[in-house]
Amino acid sequence: MLRRRHVIAALTAWTVLLLWAPAPASGAPPVPRPAPAVAPAPASGAVAASGAVAADDTCAVRAPGASAAAERAVAAACEQVAAGVWYTWGGGHGPRPGPTYGQVDPTDPASEHDPERLGFDCSGLVRHAYARATGEDILNGVASAQHYTHRAAERFTAAQGLAPLVPGDLLVWGTSQKLHHIALYLGAGKMAEARQSGTKLMVSDVRLDGGYFGAVRVDTGPVTGHVFSTWGEGVWTKAQPSVRAARVYAFPGPTTVRVQCQKHAETVTSDGYTNDAWSYLPDYRAWVTNIYIKGPAWLDSVPTCPSDMR
Questions:
Q1: Which residues of 200-226 are buried (b: 16+ CB within 10 A; e: fewer)?
Q2: Residue 62's closest CA among 48, 82, 77?
Q3: Cβ-contact 101, 88 below 8 angstroms
Q4: InterPro entries, alphabetically (predicted)?
């Protein structure tokens, strides 16, 4: 016991000396002190709609510049991501926007359980997001129809990369003849997507390789321009107003299109009709014979294209 008292007394004395040690002389190095705790730096470019920084895997508006409707579309898609909704092939294409049970994709063995899963495929999610954002079913269709929408405000090529994009823009993959995937851009190089069978809706890094085709910004306001509907199935648009010109895109069925102008060019005979009028479709950057546009042989109110336009 006595020895223990001596030890305690010695420790007390040393503590007093340390507490009352004089400050170092001018120019002497300061006594090191523990650094205060610092919060980790935010992820670069990840900005939520409120201005707060979002974590890398957070589904949110992650950059400025989007319209209010586009931000609502992102929020609607992210709500489904947060809920852990499944990808399901054909999901989201019911009579009204929203999740539906899927189908078996004959090309994908992983889709065997899709008929049991309530969810979305890629275009079903996009359809739902913009329907929630606008209160109207403005993007009802598959990926190609959504990309070539007559509601396009602006289009971007793959060569332009992500720099000009804002949250809510639609990213697509494939070729001019077949677009097979679409996703919703969040900003800061991230996107929300329904990717493939066997997975749930997710936030991913934008894949600029593997067939990235470009993007489109959706105009949620009133439709502008001369809008018509096509008829027939597998009707090809062409790079020039000629049946021998390169193919651009085939309408799988009746499609709403915006016509910029029309001109007399190569005469075409098809399905019992003969016509030399061709219409230029700015959303496709392509031509289609007027035979497959519902209306008269020469479309009312549509101007004639400039003579040098090919």
A1: ebbbeebeeeeebbbbbbbbbeeeeeb
A2: 48
A3: yes
A4: NLP_P60_dom, Papain-like_cys_pep_sf, PG_Endopeptidase_C40
What does the buried/exposed string (b/e) look like for 236-253 if buried means 16 or more CB atoms within 10 Å of the residue's CB? Answer: bbbebbeeebeebbebee
C-alpha–C-alpha distance, residues 78 and 91, integer Å: 17
Query: Which among 128, 147, 150, 181 is annotated as catalytic?
Result: 181
One of 59, 147, 193, 305 is an active-site residue; which one? 193
Structural tokens at position 96: 């009204």
Tell me which amino acid residue 212 is.
Y
Question: pLDDT (tens digit, 9 = 90+) per residue, 49-65?
Answer: 333 434 578 999 999 99
Phi first, then psi, for residue 216 (nearest 5°) are -140, 140
Catalytic residue among 93, 122, 128, 150: 122
Please check whether residue 91 is in contact with residue 117, taking contact to mean a CB–CB distance below 8 angstroms. Answer: yes
- Residue type, position 36, single letter: P
Distances (CA, A) of 46 to 15, 32, 84, 201: 49, 36, 22, 20
122 is annotated as an active-site residue: yes
Taking alpha carbons only, the member of 222, 219, 42, 214 closest to residue 144 is 214
Cα dist from 233 to 84, 252, 292, whole Å = 37, 5, 10
pTM of the model: 0.79
Banded model confidence at residue 216, pLDDT cuts 50, 70, 90: very high
Nearest to 186 by CA among 47, 44, 81, 42: 47
How far from each other are the two terminal CA atoms of the chain, in whole angstroms? 106
